[in-house]
Amino acid sequence: MVKLQLMMQPDGKKAQPDGKTLIARALRQRCPVCGQGATFRTHFRMNPTCSHCHVVFWKDPGECLGAMYLDYAVAFGIFVVCWPMVFLTTNLSDLKQIFLLSAVSVASVLICYPVTRSFWTVLVFISGGIEQPPANRSRPAEKRHITLVKR
Known about the structure:
- This protein is mostly helical.
- It has three helices and no strands.
- The termini are far apart.
């Protein structure tokens, strides 16, 4: 388990964790900001916010497209690694090899789904897309109702 003590910057904000810590949080599928809250509820269902620090993981619906690039990289990497092994160790036809490698690639994407989403969440955090909550706030902001008075 990676322990991290966040240092305070002069302006009162927490310093960003180092790369090793962020990679560990992505692999453990934890919040990139605090490292405590889980990013996933189930294997395929991501939590919208951190249960510990209450940051919103993905604010825009289009942010899932970036995670698809990581899925593509996983599928391509598995295909490239497995193809020489299948080619050299079996006597399957080319069509059967393509079907086998495609099935393995799709399975690898499904297995790695939470990890790729967690890594993308870390990249969104590094790029500034996930803002750290104020240090003194322990729960999400309550909705405030504004009443307009006509004079």
